[in-house]
Specification:
heterodimer, A: 6-stranded mixed sheet, 10 helices, 14 strands, B: 426 residues, mainly alpha, 4 strands, elongated
């Protein structure tokens, strides 16, 4: 199945075929040409995307690209002007919300409520019984090392702790689809790792996870598939490994004694000297073998490595192509 | 519906448990009690002073009868309100010197403060049916009435005695007739009496205060939720309509709780022991009709204004912005109070009818009319019908603004933008 895109001519965009076994896998989320405009501003423009059950999906793009608008339409906070949303293999209906956990980017809590009461409230709104919500909240707080804070008011907690409360609230009702908008912003590294481990555990348990972020390096290692969006349009969607593979290994990292002086070399199109090593991007069609010979003639090489491009580089490349 | 209930519960408990609710609930009756107790207490202090009055008369016998009447205090107190102030104590002196020199001397004594005043009860004055009381302070209402009663009764008593009547015969003849005003006919203010007016004023001001306070509470609470960024978290499970319903019902329930606490307080006040306050409350002839009307108009008024306040709250981001934006809700409410006077004076007039039919004024003006003159049932029903339609329209309008506004954190919308908000898909 080719990558489905907006109104752009398909020829301009890399199409990444899904392997056949993935095509048959059930889709947790299907967005079919959704569009949202606010007055003259087009927030989301005929966006198509599919999220396979059990995968970790990255919705990536710069600030203001339409990520949050897309998510809001996905879970019925706003309705699309055009297009359809299907969740869990059926058209969207509000009953599905109890299978979804959403942590928005604009997230907050009632400051004067106690942590446990707050979690119980949000659990109740997700159809849990009072008792069930309480037990689950306590278990989660224990697990995320905030057991002694359950009777504190939210306003007495640090920012990071409040974020953990949000995180628990999102997962309390054991959702099948977890949507997190900028989940790691404002977290210290220790807590970020803790949350990441929880999410990886959930993925292993078969949950579908959707990340939305503009920090691509953060999710590059976590995601199975991605959708890059810019100005409300998908510019690249599909399996991350396939996307990267299609770009080929056109980056080279060279560790060597001294400067190889590649700035004016006809084989490369860009050079970044990081001090400890030099990173170059090869021109299309250039053979890395030729570069190795060239550098070996000039300096002593301790490492010469062919790399896949980073997501960020792919993104910049794609945005440039569509600008 | 379950979600709405959960939200109502949260809103209600968060408010009722707050310290400000406790303080306000306790403070309001205290302020009310003070408003009642302080004037009556002051009146008592004032009345407690000794009043030295000189009665100047050619006929000392007549003077002493009048003096006796004054000393007996109020003989014909027909006004319930006046009972609350203690009777003044009079010290009476009879003076038979009716010369102009004596008059000047007494005038001097008055201005020196040696006596409170003197009564010029000469034969000449009696013949003219015009008696002059000279005093430094302008005679207050109560005192003037007491004097007039004493003089009239005293003269009558004296003259009847002159005609040979015995003391007890005179007493029974002059026994005061108590007049109670009972509102049966569709009368005007004069016939309804102060009690009804007081009741109406009290109820309307209570309604105004509570609607204003809780309308503002709805607005503040929407702004606070916007600022804490909790709304999008909630919106992932509940609809904007459910949120709005939960907010308005929850805050309204707090308002009702507060009124109930105050009613209980008022009940406690009427327990013997707080006599002054009791006499005030006994003035409040709150009929069952008035109570039902109050409940109905409070509910409607609250829904109407809180819907407006919720919409305003959703449009703005800070309390300061809200200050500038709240006039569409505040102006009609205040205007209703301002127009009260016109309705009180002619509750039956066409003007009063039309004003009380305007849904934004109705909670105040129709309630006022119901308490003071009992308008025809069809008018009340028509008014409630109009209000119901307005409340429905405003709530659906407010929920559309709310739905869009709570997710907008930027600058507040201009009027054309607002119009577009109303048209966005649900």
């Amino acid at each position: 199945m080719p990558v489905r895109l907006g109104r752009e001519p398909v020829a301009e965009i890399k199409t990444i075929p899904f392997p056949p076994q993935q095509e048959r896998a059930p889709q947790t989320v299907e967005l079919l040409g959704i569009r949202k405009t606010y007055d003259d501003f087009v927030a989301v423009d005929h966006l198509y995307l599919n999220i396979r059950e059990g995968s970790v999906y990255g919705l990536l793009g710069p600030n203001g690209a339409g990520k949050t608008s897309t998510i809001r339409m996905m879970i019925g906070i706003t309705l699309p002007d055009d297009g359809r949303v299907r969740l869990f293999g059926e058209p969207f209906h509000r009953g599905q919300l109890r299978r979804i956990g959403y942590m928005p980017e604009e997230r907050g809590l009632y400051k004067r409520m106690k942590v446990l009461d707050h979690l119980v409230l949000l659990g109740r709104l997700h159809n849990l019984t009072e008792r069930d919500a309480r037990l689950r909240s306590l278990a989660w707080c224990e697990r995320l090392q905030m057991g002694e804070w359950t009777h504190s008011k939210v306003e007495e907690l640090s920012k990071g702790m409040q974020q953990k409360v949000q995180f628990i609230a999102t997962l309390l009702h054991d959702p099948d689809l977890i949507i997190m908008d900028e989940p790691f912003s404002g977290l210290d590294p220790a807590n970020a790792v803790m949350l990441k481990d929880v999410l990886i555990g959930l993925k292993k348990a078969g949950k579908t996870i959707l990340f939305s972020t503009h920090r691509m390096d953060q999710v590059e290692r976590l995601c199975d598939a991605i959708c890059l969006i810019d100005h409300g349009r998908a510019i690249l969607e599909g399996d991350l490994k396939k996307i990267k593979a299609s770009y080929g290994k056109n980056h080279v990292q060279i560790e060597c004694d001294g400067d190889p002086h590649l700035e004016n070399c006809e084989l490369v199109c860009s050079v970044n000297n990081y001090g400890n090593y030099v990173e170059v991007q090869l021109k299309p069609g250039a053979d890395p073998q030729d570069l190795l010979r060239l550098v070996a003639d000039r300096v002593r090489i301790s490492r010469f490595e062919l790399l896949e491009p980073s997501l960020e580089e792919i993104f910049i490349d794609q945005v440039g192509a569509h600008a | 519906m379950r979600n709405v209930w959960t939200l109502v519960k949260r809103e209600y408990l968060a408010r009722v448990r707050s310290r400000s609710f406790l303080i306000f609930t306790l403070l309001m009756p205290a302020v009310m009690a003070a408003m009642v107790l302080i004037p009556t207490t002051l009146a008592r202090w004032d009345g407690g002073g000794m009043r030295k009055i000189v009665i100047v008369a050619n006929n000392p016998e007549l003077a002493s009868v009048v003096g006796h009447e004054l000393g007996n205090g109020r003989t014909q107190a027909d006004d319930e309100l006046q009972k609350s102030s203690a009777p003044a104590v009079y010290s009476i002196q009879v003076d038979t010197d009716t010369s102009e020199a004596e008059r000047a001397r007494l005038g001097q004594q008055v201005s020196e403060g040696k006596i409170t005043g003197f009564l010029w009860l000469t034969d000449e004055a009696l013949a003219n049916h015009s008696v002059i009381y000279s005093t430094k302070e302008a005679a207050d209402f109560t005192q003037g009435r007491e004097l007039r009663n004493a003089i009239t009764t005293g003269i009558a008593r004296y003259r009847l005695a002159q005609k040979g009547m015995k003391g007890d015969e005179v007493d029974s003849l002059l026994a005061p007739t108590k007049l109670d005003t009972v509102r049966i006919e569709k009368g005007h203010q004069g016939a309804s009496g102060s009690a009804v007016f007081l009741t109406a004023f009290f109820m309307v001001m209570l309604l105004y205060t509570v609607v204003l306070i809780y309308g503002l509470a709805v607005m503040r609470s929407v702004i606070e939720e916007k600022n804490t960024r909790i709304l999008e978290v909630l919106l992932s499970t509940v609809t904007a309509k459910e949120l709005l319903a939960g907010k308005i019902i929850g805050v309204g329930a707090v308002g009702l709780t507060q009124i109930m606490v105050w009613v209980i307080f008022a009940g406690l006040f009427s327990v013997p022991g707080l006599i002054a306050a009791k006499s005030f409350l006994s003035e409040l002839h709150i009929s069952v009709t008035a109570m039902i009307a109050f409940a109905a108009f409070f509910l409607m008024g609250y829904l109407l204004y809180s819907a407006m306040y919720a919409a305003i709250g959703a449009m703005v981001n800070t309390d300061q912005e809200a200050q500038q934006m709240q006039w569409p809700a505040l102006v009609p409410l205040v205007l209703g109070v301002v127009l009260m006077n016109a309705v009180i004076q002619h509750p039956n007039s066409a003007l009063a009818f039309w004003l009380s039919m305007v849904p934004f004024f109705a909670p105040i003006l129709m309630l006022l009319r119901i308490v003071i003159e009992q308008p025809p049932v069809w008018q009340i029903l028509l008014c409630l019908g109009l209000m119901l339609a307005t409340v429905y329209g405003l709530l659906s309008l407010a929920s559309r603004i709310y739905r869009v506004g709570i997710l907008m954190y930027g600058k507040r919308p201009s009027l054309p933008e607002l119009r577009r908000w109303l048209r966005y898909a649900e």
